[in-house]
Design goal:
This protein is an alpha/beta fold. It folds into four domains: 10-115, Up-down Bundle (Four Helix Bundle (Hemerythrin (Met), subunit A)), CATH 1.20.120; 129-246, 3-Layer(aba) Sandwich (Rossmann fold), CATH 3.40.50.2300; 255-375, Rossmann fold (3-Layer(aba) Sandwich), CATH 3.40.50; 392-544, Reverse transcriptase/Diguanylate cyclase domain (Alpha-Beta Plaits, 2-Layer Sandwich). Helix content is 51%, strand content 15%. The protein contains 19 helices and 17 strands. The protein has helices at 10-39, 46-65, 69-84, 93-109, 136-148, 159-168, 186-197, 214-222, 235-246, 263-274, 289-295, 312-320, 339-347, 360-382, 392-409, 423-430, 432-449, 473-489, 515-531; strands spanning 122-123, 129-132, 153-155, 173-177, 204-208, 225-230, 248-249, 255-259, 279-283, 300-304, 330-334, 352-355, 413-420, 455-460, 463-469, 503-509, 537-539. It has a five-stranded parallel beta sheet with strand order 3-2-4-5-6, sandwiched between helices. Strands 9-8-10-11-12 form a five-stranded parallel beta sheet, with helices on both faces. Strands 14-15-13-16-17 form a five-stranded mixed beta sheet, with helices on both faces. β4 (173-177), α7 (186-197) and β5 form a beta-alpha-beta unit. α2 packs antiparallel against α3, α3 (69-84) packs antiparallel against α4 and α16 crosses α17. The longest helix is centred in the N-terminal third of the chain and has 30 residues, at 10-39. The chain is globular. The structure holds 3'-deoxy-guanosine-5'-triphosphate and magnesium ion. The site of magnesium ion (MG) has 5 residues, from β13.
Length: 545
C-alpha cells in the first residue's frame, strides 16, 4: 500500500513566508503608531521624540529588508520630517499636521490580512482575548460572538491551562470569573499573580455569578478590573468594551486659535502648544478673527483680554452671536488678577480664565481638557445615544456635503438605506431591551465593516442610512450584500433560544440629483426589497419612479 503524503506546495510555502515577514513589518509599524500616540498625550520631550525616531528607523530597516514598499515610503517621509526640524527648533503646526497625516497613512498599512476593520486611524489589537468562565457554555457562546466581530479569543477551562496559555502569549484583555476554577476568589488571585509578572497591567473584565459585594468589587478593581459584570454576560457589551480597551484611536490633534495683539506673547503660547502636538493659528489683529475662524477649523480659542481695537470680552460676544461658533470654548489669557473682573469676563461668553505668567503644563492641560469636552459635546449633538452612529439630521447634512463633493470631483456616490426585517416581532417575542441589543449589534457590525470615510447614520428606529463616497454601484452592492449575508448568519444571544435577524437594503447611485432625491430613491429601492421577500439588497431603477 502506498502512503499518501500531502506536502504543502512550494508556492503556498512562499506565500506563508511572505505573510510572516509582512507581519513583522506590520508589528514595527504598530510600534511607531503607539509611540506617536503616547507623544501626543504628553510634551514632546526629547526622550520620547527619540523613541519615536528609533521606532521609525527600525520600521524603515525592516520594511526595506522585507521589501514592503508602502511601509518604507512612509517611514522615509517620517524620517525626513523629523530631520527637518532639528532638536533646537520646536515643532510647528505644519510639522504636527504632516506627521499626523503620515501616521494615519501608516495606520492603513498596519492592518493585518485578517483585520475586519478598515477604519482610518484606528488599529485593532493583534493580541488574543483570553476567556476563563466557570460556565463553559457561556464562554463558548462569547467566543463565537467574538469571532463574528473578528476578535481572536481562546477559552480556558482550568487554572493550569490558563497559566500555560498566558506564558505562551500575553493577551490583550482577559474575561474571567472571579471564582474561576470553582474556589472563592480564585479568579482574582490568578489575575493578581499574572499582573505581578508584567510591567503594563492587562485590562480585566470580571464576571461574578451572584456575589457582588463591595469587597469583591474592590479586590477586582485593584487587580485592574475595568468591568464587573453580574447575572449573565451580554456579548455585545463585552465586545464593545474590548474594542474600547484595545483599539489605538488616533484622534486628530487639537486646533487652537490664539488671539493676542502682542506678537511675543502669541508666539510663546504657540510654541508651548506646538511642543505638545497641538496645532495653532495666531491672530494679532483682533478684527481679523472672523475671517480666520471661517477657514481654520477651530476646537478652541485662547483670547487676550486687553487689545487695542477691541477687548477680549467684546470680541467673544461677537463670536458667540454666530450660531456655528456657540460651542467653541474661549479661554481668556491675561495678566488681570482681579477676581471680580475675571468673573465679569467669564459672564461675557468666556469659559475659563488663565492668569499670565502661566506654566506651560497648566496651559496644555487646560487646552486638552477643554478641547476634549468640546469635542464630546459636539459628538453628542450629532450622534445617536443608543448606537453612537450619526443621527438623522447630521446624516442628511453629510449627504448634502457628499453630493457636492461627488459633483465637484466627478466621483461616484452611493446612498443606501437599511431596515431590519420583522423587527416588531423581535420586540414582541423577546422584549424591547432585546430589540435595542439587536439595533446596537447591527450598528457595531456596520462600523466594523465600513470605511471611516463612509457615513453610517441611524435614520430612525430600526432604520439605518449609509453614504459610500467614491464607490461604484457594483462594489456597493457586493459590499452590502456581503454584510447582509454575514449579519443574517449571526446568532443574537437570547432566551430561551438565540435568534437570527435579517435586514433589507435599498440603494441609489448619485446621478446628478440632489440629496433629497437620492434619499427618496434609496427609500423606494428599500420598499422594493421588502416587497421582494426581505433579506435582500435592491438597487433603485429609474422605472420605479
Ligand atoms: P418590516 O420587515 O416590514 O420592516 O417589519 P418591521 O416589523 O420591522 O416594521 P414595523 O415598522 O412594523 O415595526 C418596527 C418596530 O420597531 C416598531 C417599533 O416599536 C420598533 N422600534 C423602533 N425604534 C425602536 C428602538 O429604538 N428600540 C426597539 N427595541 N424597538 C424599536
Ligand atoms: Mg423593519
Amino acid at each position: 500500500m502506498t502512503e499518501l503524503v500531502v506536502k504543502p506546495s512550494t508556492t503556498s510555502q512562499t506565500a506563508r513566508l511572505k505573510d510572516h515577514f509582512a507581519q513583522r513589518v506590520t508589528n514595527r509599524a504598530r510600534h511607531v503608531i503607539e509611540c506617536w500616540h503616547r507623544l501626543n498625550k504628553e510634551h514632546w520631550s526629547k526622550q520620547w521624540l527619540a523613541e519615536f525616531q528609533r521606532a521609525n528607523e527600525k520600521l524603515l530597516k525592516y520594511a526595506e529588508r522585507f521589501k514592503q514598499q508602502a511601509h518604507s515610503d512612509i517611514a522615509r517621509q517620517i524620517s525626513k520630517v523629523l530631520q527637518d526640524f532639528n532638536e533646537e527648533k520646536a515643532p510647528n503646526s505644519d510639522v504636527i499636521r504632516h506627521l499626523n497625516d503620515l501616521i494615519i497613512k501608516l495606520s492603513y498599512t498596519a492592518l493585518r490580512k485578517g483585520d475586519t476593520s478598515i477604519e482610518i486611524g484606528s488599529i485593532p489589537t493583534s493580541k488574543p482575548v483570553y476567556i476563563g468562565l466557570n460556565h463553559f457554555s457561556m464562554a463558548t457562546k462569547l467566543l463565537k460572538q467574538m469571532e463574528y466581530f473578528g476578535l481572536r479569543a481562546k477559552v480556558f477551562h482550568t487554572h493550569d491551562e490558563f497559566m500555560k496559555g498566558f506564558e505562551n502569549r500575553y493577551p490583550a484583555v482577559i474575561v474571567i470569573d472571579v471564582d474561576f476554577g470553582g474556589e472563592k476568589r480564585a479568579g482574582i488571585e490568578l489575575i493578581n499573580n499574572i499582573q505581578a509578572q508584567i510591567e503594563t497591567p492587562i485590562p480585566i473584565l470580571f464576571y461574578c455569578d451572584e456575589d457582588d459585594n463591595i469587597l469583591t468589587r474592590l479586590e477586582a478593581a485593584r487587580a485592574n478590573g475595568c468591568e464587573f459584570y453580574t447575572h449573565g454576560l451580554e456579548a455585545g457589551h463585552v465586545i464593545e468594551r474590548i474594542e474600547q480597551l484595545t483599539r489605538i484611536t488616533l484622534n486628530d490633534p487639537y486646533r487652537v486659535l490664539i488671539v493676542d495683539d502682542s506678537k511675543a506673547q502669541a508666539y510663546f503660547t504657540q510654541s508651548t502648544l506646538n511642543k505638545a502636538g497641538i496645532i495653532t493659528q495666531v491672530v494679532t489683529k483682533p478684527l481679523e478673527v472672523m475671517d480666520v475662524l471661517e477657514k481654520f477649523d477651530t476646537d478652541l480659542i485662547i483670547m487676550d483680554m486687553y487689545m487695542p481695537d477691541c477687548n477680549g470680552m467684546e470680541l467673544s460676544k461677537v463670536i458667540r452671536q454666530q450660531e456655528k461658533y456657540v460651542s467653541i470654548p474661549i479661554i481668556y489669557l491675561s495678566a488681570e488678577g482681579d477676581i471680580d473682573k475675571q468673573l465679569v469676563a467669564m459672564g461675557e461668553g468666556g469659559d475659563d480664565f488663565l492668569t499670565k505668567p502661566i506654566k506651560p503644563r497648566h496651559l496644555i492641560m487646560t487646552v486638552r481638557n477643554r478641547g476634549e469636552r468640546a469635542r464630546t459635546l459636539l459628538s453628542r449633538m450629532i450622534r445617536d445615544s443608543l448606537t453612537g452612529l450619526y443621527n438623522h439630521t447630521y446624516t442628511l447634512q453629510q449627504l448634502q456635503t457628499e453630493v457636492m463633493r461627488a459633483e465637484e470631483y466627478e466621483h461616484p456616490l452611493v446612498f443606501a438605506m437599511i431596515d431590519i426585517d420583522k423587527f416588531k416581532s423581535v420586540n414582541d417575542t423577546y422584549g424591547h431591551p432585546m430589540g435595542d441589543r439587536v439595533i446596537k449589534s447591527l450598528a457595531l457590525f456596520l462600523k466594523q465593516r465600513l470605511r471611516k470615510t463612509d457615513t453610517i447614520g441611524r435614520y430612525g428606529g430600526e432604520e439605518f442610512a449609509i453614504i459610500l463616497p467614491n464607490t461604484g454601484q457594483q462594489a456597493a452592492v457586493g459590499l452590502l450584500d456581503d454584510i447582509r449575508e454575514h449579519f443574517s448568519q449571526m446568532k443574537q444571544p437570547a432566551h430561551p433560544t438565540d435568534l437570527q435577524v435579517t435586514f433589507s437594503c435599498g440603494l441609489a447611485m448619485f446621478d446628478g440629483s440632489n440629496g433629497e432625491q437620492l434619499s427618496a430613491q434609496a427609500d423606494k429601492a428599500l420598499y422594493a426589497a421588502k416587497n421582494g421577500g426581505r433579506n435582500c439588497v435592491k438597487v433603485y431603477q429609474a422605472s420605479q419612479s
